[in-house]
Design brief:
single chain, alpha+beta, Immunoglobulin-like, 7-stranded mixed β-sheet, cell membrane, membrane, High-affinity nitrate transporter, Transptr_NO3_Nar2
């Protein structure tokens, strides 16, 4: 009898875990309250350098978001790939199911929700790859599920984008060493020719 109770309890636990996992999987972007957060970005003109340049990110509750803010517990801000940087890159692919979506892979910050306006100066991480980006903020409920979002671009993800250039891996000291080696090579070559010419003249005098 005890064995049957243990098996029954185990079955219930497995079903509960599966249902929770399934519920998480089924959450899609289209089910969230779109535009519940106003998100804007500000940065210098031109291509930004990873590991160096900053993006000022501001978010606040929108006029329509007030209808749902009672559900908001945490705001998660993420850096997202724009469509041009997703072409032929399945590891950046957009998927409607959030657990499969690879659009917003780079975490920026997570903060407890309040209805004040928040702004941060985000220094682009050194490992950010070259690409075109926008910023999205998710409102998360107390169970850890995304319930609403806002983003710094339009629905087509074509406006207010910014470009980032990844770190090339070269260091300034390497460039200096390379330049010094090049100069040394040229000087050595000139010295070699002068020395050979001098030897030739000495041979002729003999």
């Amino acid at each position: 009898m005890a064995i049957h109770k243990i098996l029954f309890a185990s079955l219930l636990i497995c079903l509960l875990i599966q249902s929770i996992h399934g519920a998480t999987k089924e959450r899609v972007l289209g089910d969230l309250y779109k535009g519940a957060l106003d998100v804007t970005t500000k940065n210098r003109d031109g291509v930004l350098d990873a590991g160096k340049d900053k993006v000022t990110i501001t978010w606040k509750l929108s006029a329509t978001g007030s209808e749902h803010e009672s559900e908001f517990k945490t705001i998660k801000v993420k850096l997202c790939y724009a469509p041009p940087s997703q072409v032929d890159r399945p590891w950046r692919k957009t998927h409607p199911e959030l657990f499969k979506d690879k659009t917003c892979k780079h975490k920026i910050v997570a903060k407890s929700y309040d209805n004040n306006t928040h702004s941060i100066d985000y220094t682009l991480e050194r490992d950010i790859p070259t690409g075109i980006y926008f910023v999205r903020a998710y409102a998360v409920n107390e169970t850890g599920h995304e319930v609403a979002y806002g983003q710094s671009t339009d629905d087509a993800k074509k406006t207010n984008l910014f470009s980032v250039q990844a770190i090339s891996g070269r260091h300034a000291s390497l460039d200096i060493a390379s330049a010094c080696f090049s100069v040394f090579s040229v000087v050595s070559l000139i010295f070699f020719f002068i020395n050979e010419k001098r030897k030739a003249k000495l041979e002729q005098r003999r």
